[in-house]
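Suppose a colleague, Dr. K., hands you the sequence of a protein chain of 115 amino acids and asks what its three-dimensional shape might be. Before reaching for any lab equipment, you can write down a predicted structure in token form. Begin with the sequence itself:
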Amino acid sequence: MRTNKRVFLALILILNVACTKEKVPTEFSGCSDTVSFSEVIAPLIQANCYDCHKPPSPAGNVLLTNHIEIADEANRMLIAMQASGDELMPSGGPALNDSLIQYFQCWILQGKLDN
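The predicted structure, expressed as tokens, is then:
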């Protein structure tokens, strides 16, 4: 009976993920799956960081336009995402939700893959 319940729950989760139209996850599902740079991290950065961190004059002289730049700044970015007050990023905007921060942290822990 337990196995059937687990299979049923897994099927529901798979169907929910397969049917979502959003590129960036809104609920954290854990670090067990590899976090995709192209499907999760890049859209997160594009939506929340790129306006201030793009050429010709990026904020703080920090460009976030490609995988290498983002990977190089990832640890500092994570700290800024979890900060408060003037140190919080994105600057002037609402804080990122916990799920997005957790996905970003997983991506870092998984080696900042360019996938």
